[in-house]
UniProtKB/TrEMBL annotation:
Single biological process term from Gene Ontology: nucleobase-containing compound metabolic process
Domain of life according to the entry: Bacteria
CDD domains xref list: RNaseD_exo
Provenance organism: Streptomyces griseoaurantiacus M045
GO molecular function, a single term: nucleic acid binding
Region (Disordered): 1-25, 325-344
PANTHER family for the chain: RIBONUCLEASE D
Protein name: Ribonuclease
Domain HRDC: start-end pairs: 248-328
Annotated Pfam families: DNA_pol_A_exo1, DNA_pol_A_exoN, HRDC
Phylogenetic classification of the source organism: Bacteria, Bacillati, Actinomycetota, Actinomycetes, Kitasatosporales
Amino acid sequence: MTDAQETAADSPLRTAEGAPPDTEVAAAARTPVPLLEPREGIPPVISDEAGLAEVVAAFAAGSGPVAVDAERASGYRYGQRAYLVQLRREGAGSALIDPVACPDLSAFGAAIADAEWVLHAATQDLPCLREIGMRPTRLFDTELAGRLAGFPRVGLGAMVENVLGFVLEKGHSAVDWSTRPLPEPWLRYAALDVELLVDLRDALEKELDRQGKLEWALQEFDAIASAPPAEPRKDPWRRTSGMHKVRRRRQMAVVRELWQTRDRIAQRRDVSPGKVLGDTAIVEAALALPPNVHALAGLNGFGHRMGRRQLEQWQSAVDRAKALPEAELPQPGQPVTGPPPPRAWADKDPAAAARLSAARAAVSARAEELNLPPENLITPDTVRRVCWEPPQTVDGESVAAALAGYGARAWQVELVTPVLVEALRSAG
């Protein structure tokens, strides 16, 4: 690390545009320092069992938290698997691991299982890390910490700059990480992403403690670490962009058949579904219900650069949907397990709409007082559920129980219960 890097790394939270207004900082702000190289250089990419064993041993012998990051190939490959894993720990340095060549990292996960893992936006990386055997028992999420501390910009680059005084180069965040071999500039970028993650964690911990929010953050981190894997989404085809234009059940069946055909092809070819067929084309075909390949070729997204064989496979999907009996057509909407969309409340239940309006205003005001986003104080879905079906007796005990039943953490229950009780009572 250069002298300038050491100075910036040792500094307390910086004064900078985008930092929370009440942050205690050094008396004078420092000019951000470009972070150009990892302090020990770019580590070699581990792609064999012998190299992996050495790194596992080094990290097991290291000390303190472990910085963890993963790179995916969203937009290029099917699914959200990891194509590079970056780690750093005191005493071990940094490591870059190729999870394609080393698909089972459970030994690595076990070696650092007792350590606190430091991730930025943990919920984005945890699913792909679980797939390769890495599951934290404790974690610190620097993005979530930034939200709770009141930072308006919580991307890694903004946080590192505003808190530590470094400028990270972010030009390779959206590249195709399935590329092999990975270019050296990409590897440098990847190594730098974990270079100061523990330093950022330490600074944010101090700031959260100063603001009296550290216990809130720890409860949030525990909830993330202990959360079970997300259930597969039911009827994912319904999330096709432009689906709101599709009204008739037969048209919905076309969307479903085209979406499922596209998904099978994308999975087989290991490419992003959008590279096989765009959502716009799917919706166009559903609305037009083309009778043959010639008509299909005239629709946006089908005719240009698409061969006869491809057109025939899409027309076959359309024909299968058109041939379905009425009983097998999809229903207009998904089964509702919670409250209806808020826009429908005024018609369905005006009293509930009044409760929701009062509750939203109260939560927003309380969040502003605490200098954190309203959605981090309490999830909007929880507020909607309590307002749609409030307790029979609106008091502190019943509202607190309702919030806890919907998954609110203890700190959220304590802070939100009083304002929700008042809002529900005022709305009648």
